[in-house]
Amino acid sequence: MAATVTVVFPIFAVILIGWLARRxxxxxxxxxxxxxxxxxxxxxxxxxxxxxxxxxxxxxxxxATVYFGACFTxxxxxxxxxxxxxxxxxxxxxxxxxxxxxxxxxxxxxVSVAAxxxxxxxxxxxxxxxHSGTLLPLAGVLxxxxxxxxxxxxxxxxxxxKGAGRNPVILAILAAFLWRATGVxxxxxxxxxxxxxxxxxxxxxxxxLGASLPPPxxxxxxxxxxxxxxxxxxxxxxxxxxxxxxxxxxxxxLAVATLAAATPTGANAFLLAHRNDELIAISAGTVxxxxxxxxxxxxxxxxxxx
Length: 306
What we know:
Keywords: Cell membrane, Membrane, Transmembrane, Transmembrane helix, Transport. It comes from Enterovirga rhinocerotis. By secondary structure, the chain is an all-alpha fold. The chain contains 14 helices and no strands. The chain has a single domain (about 1-305), classed as Up-down Bundle (Na+/H+ antiporter like fold), CATH 1.20.1530. The longest helix has 29 residues, at about 275-305.
């Protein structure tokens, strides 16, 4: 238990510090925006690239198949439940997305590294690299179709994929994969520079996450939030673990994939709902609740899998 507290508590304490700093106006929105830019355009890409090029080899295809097989299953379940409740296609889609789209970068990376060391990076970075390029286009097409938008489903998917292709974090991960394939060793001075720059990545990302969390909104904590939270924090990790065990994944990638599945809902989920205030409120509520409750679920998983 003490080891679990040592791993999980500091991560969520830093998130809480960021949240409180923003709530009491110790830092303003402009400062949060600037810190976010520094984190995602400089320090996190440096951290991920330098860590990935020196990480041990792993069955990345197996990890991706297990993880996203479970994600698409939970997405379909959430979508189906929404339709059974009489929700619109867009609202049902957001329910499904909230239930499977996790904050694998800002929470998954620090938790995995704290629990298992840098050997955990290849599987978690594989998940991050494919996360936005698979789940967001699917949800975006369905939301746009329900909204009767003028853009075709192909145009919506292409736009989302284009945005993901410009994401510095994803580009850094892909560049690291390509560099590893060459078999060339990066000169020590460059490795040292990247590690020095990347050292600020995890604490800065956690502070930004906390400062970016929405304030509590009682109106957004209805049945949809309860369903999405239950699917995200309980059903998805259980399904990833079941799929991975059945597929014979080694213990480390299985543990990392399960932890990634238990991360709170990612903020990018509700950005898709920007044209609908009701969808934004519900999704933001899910992000907040899953972030708070994941302290318990991630702590329990670290104790079980560690």
